[in-house]
Every structure is written in structure tokens, then in C-alpha cells.
Write a structure and sequence with these properties.
Elements: H1 2-11, H2 16-27, H3 36-52, E1 56-60, E2 68-73, E3 82-87, H4 96-99, E4 103-105, E5 108-110, H5 114-134, E6 140-145, H6 157-165, E7 170-173, E8 177-178, E9 182-187, E10 189-198, E11 202-203, H7 214-231, E12 235-244, E13 250-251, E14 254-263, H8 268-281, E15 289-294, H9 307-319, E16 326-330, H10 336-340, E17 346-347, E18 353-355, E19 363-365, H11 366-383
Parallel strand pairs: 3-6, 3-7, 7-17, 8-18, 9-16
Antiparallel strand pairs: 1-2, 2-6, 4-5, 5-19, 10-14, 10-15, 11-13, 12-14, 18-19
């Protein structure tokens, strides 16, 4: 299989240089998750590229988020169909490229979003080119979100992805590849929560007794939230930001904190929200009031559908000479969570390998683009007419 694909790559004049050149193109189209116009530019670029390959495309657009791009090819029942999925948006603000341009040093590729996840995104057209060259005609669907990094908080993208994925055989999510050659078969879900606390302002000296200190009240709640780390065996609770007050000599009448909550067991979702509600409403400082607001959350991505799929891809990796992979369960979230809710087996972290995504140290391994291109294409061909 490897020799067959290598011959096709040679016939089509696809090389690491051409992969790097198209990679550079999409990195240089900045697509900060809170800049919908920037994400839309990248979507248009990818749309044109996929249409050139003969795929039929459509875009779902949203007022405050980047679009969802969907492209299709092939014939026959979708039960034999393969999904290639990922996201266009990055965490890096528009203008980051000016100080951190796309560069290659030895085998390391640098630039904003080069790993998460433009490296994986860049492989999708190449995978399709190879499959078309072999005469592969089973359904292939490409699903690329434009607002993954802020959890689809301002769109119904997650629901649309579930609908688009329903009925397909399996999905490769070309998210950040792991440096240890692992493949992600499960992830914790994420709950984004903001606690808002309201008190009563007063002069800290002259009218201290008349005030209701919102900072003290939110501190009480946060202590209780920290104790939930001991209550749950498969969940974590982290207070990431806190704000309150305007001047030091006034009792603050408002405070807020942002929480990052990760969980694995689906049944914990409602329990966690119930516990937070209890902390916000019981044992309050007299006169204080608190609310919990939720948004940008991900369900847990469980491994109950993925075992046979993983075994086939792992065996293919060994046979291709890329080594044995490892089944990984990660704390970070991805859109694999939404696709698997449709009953579709999903393997995640199938993109280029690297480290330090979301930071200025983010890099990807150039050689891993070649490896993952061959592995995914070979796996799709191996999966043909095989039940999962």
C-alpha cells in the first residue's frame, strides 16, 4: 500500500515542498476565531480549492462566527462514506503573522495556527487528490468549522455538524497530532461557566456596614468550586479569571469569575451544573446574589464507538512502517465530541504532529505531514467495504 501511494504522489508531483507551499498559503490567511471576516476568507480559499477538485460545496454562515464549510464527492450509500473534518479558526489575533511569519527550520514549521490546526487542514485536498487518482468513488464528506476555538458559542455549528455527519461510516478529525504517535480515541467534555455576583456598593470607611462585598461572596463560591475537584473522580474545576471592584476604598458591588470545567462521564454534566447552582444560592452573604452562565461547551468524546476503527488504523500504521500508535484519552476538547453524538466512530489528533499549540512556541513537524497524508489515505482505502 505504501509503495502504491508513493508512486501516486510521484506521478502527481506531490512533494513535501508542495505541501509546505500550500501550508504557507493557508497560514498566511489569518483566521482568528473572533474575526469572522478573516475566517471567511480562509473558507473561500478552501472552498475554491475543493471545487477545483470536483467537490460540491456549501457554506453555512453566521453573524458573529466564521462559517461552516461542507464539501462532498463520491456515490453510493453514505454508510460507506468517510468524513474528513477540522476547523479553520485559530486562537491567534489578526496581525500575529507580522511578528511570527510562516518559517521552516530543519523539520520544524512555525507560524500562528500552523499546528492547530492548519497543518491538518492542509492535508485534506491532498488526501482527496490521491483517492480520486486511484478511482475511489465512495462518498467523502469534508466538514470544516469556523468557530471551534470558542466552542461554537455564537452559532448552531455544532448541531449542523451532527446533522451533516449522521449516517456516515467514520470520521478522521485532522486536529493537532501528538508527538508520541498517539491517536485520540476519547476526550473530556468542557463546560465554560461564568459566575456573576452582585452586592451593594458603599464607602469602605464611612459606610462599611451598608455595603455587600461581591468579591467576598464570589470568593466563597470559588472555594466551594475548588472542593468539587475532590468530589468528582473524572472532572476538574479551574478558575481562570476573576474581576471585581473599581477602587480600593469602596465596597465592590460586582465581581465575576470564569471557570474551565472538564469532565468525562456524560452523567456528570447535569450533576456539575446542579452543584454550581447550589454553591451560588446557598449560604450567601446576606443581600448578595450570584448567577452561573454557560456557553461554549463541548460534550465528552467517549471511546465506545472507536475501538475497531482505531485497531484498523493502528495496524495500517505498523504495516506502513510508521510504528505502533497508542490510544489516547485527552483533557482538551474538539469537535470529535459532536460528531460522535451522531453515532459516527471518530479518530482525533490525526493531523500533523507537533507541540505547544495555542502558544508562541507552537510548531509542527514537516515530515509528519507526509506520514499522516499516507496513513490517512491508506486507511481509507483499507476501510473500503469493511464493517465497523
Amino acid at each position: 500500500m505504501k509503495e502504491k501511494i508513493l508512486n501516486i504522489l510521484n506521478d502527481m508531483d506531490i512533494s513535501l515542498d508542495s505541501i509546505a507551499n500550500s501550508w504557507k498559503e493557508i497560514v498566511e490567511i489569518e483566521s482568528y476565531t473572533h474575526d469572522p471576516k478573516g475566517v471567511a476568507k480562509l473558507s473561500e480559499h478552501l472552498k475554491q480549492e475543493l471545487e477545483t477538485l470536483g467537490l460540491k460545496t456549501k457554506e453555512y454562515t453566521f453573524e458573529n462566527s466564521g462559517p461552516l464549510l461542507v464539501a462532498e464527492m463520491g456515490t453510493g450509500p453514505i454508510e460507506e462514506g468517510i468524513i474528513l473534518t477540522g476547523h479553520m479558526d485559530t486562537v491567534f489575533k489578526t496581525g500575529t503573522l507580522q511578528n511570527r511569519p510562516f518559517t521552516i527550520e530543519d523539520d520544524k514549521v512555525y507560524g500562528p495556527g500552523v499546528l492547530d490546526m492548519k497543518g491538518g487542514l492542509n492535508l485534506i485536498p491532498y488526501i482527496i487528490k490521491i483517492l480520486k487518482y486511484t478511482g475511489y468513488d465512495k462518498p467523502i464528506k469534508v466538514i470544516i468549522a469556523g468557530d471551534e476555538e470558542h466552542g461554537h458559542a455564537h452559532s448552531n455549528c455544532a448541531e449542523l455538524m451532527r446533522t451533516e455527519a449522521a449516517g456516515y461510516k467514520c470520521a478522521f478529525n485532522l486536529e493537532t497530532g501528538l508527538i508520541n504517535n498517539g491517536i485520540t480515541i476519547a476526550r473530556k467534555g468542557r463546560i465554560a461557566c461564568k459566575i456573576k455576583t452582585y452586592g451593594k456598593s458603599a464607602h469602605a470607611g464611612a459606610n462599611f456596614a451598608d455595603g455587600i462585598n461581591a468579591i467576598y461572596e464570589i470568593s466563597r463560591i470559588l472555594q466551594g468550586i475548588n472542593q468539587l475537584n475532590q468530589k468528582y473522580s473524572n472532572a476538574t474545576f479551574s478558575a481562570g479569571t476573576i474581576q471585581g471592584g473599581k477602587i480600593p476604598n469602596a465596597i465592590p458591588d460586582y465581581a465575576e469569575a470564569e471557570l474551565d470545567i472538564r469532565y468525562y462521564d456524560a452523567e456528570d454534566y447535569d450533576r456539575i451544573q446542579s452543584d454550581i447552582h447550589t454553591l451560588c444560592t446557598r449560604d450567601c452573604i446576606t443581600g448578595a446574589r450570584s448567577e452561573a452562565h454557560y456557553g461554549g461547551s463541548f460534550p465528552s468524546f467517549t471511546d465506545n464507538l472507536n475501538q475497531r476503527f482505531y485497531t484498523i488504523v493502528n495496524t495500517e500504521s505498523i504495516n506502513l512502517g510508521f510504528g505502533e500508535t497508542s490510544p489516547e484519552v485527552l483533557g482538551g476538547s474538539s469537535d470529535a465530541s459532536f460528531l460522535t453524538l451522531s453515532g459516527v466512530p471518530v479518530l482525533c489528533s490525526m493531523g500533523v504532529k507537533g507541540e505547544w499549540n495555542h502558544t508562541d512556541r507552537e510548531y509542527a513537524l514537516l515530515s509528519s505531514a507526509w506520514e499522516r497524508l499516507i496513513l490517512i489515505t491508506a486507511s481509507i482505502l483499507r476501510l473500503e467495504d469493511k464493517p465497523l
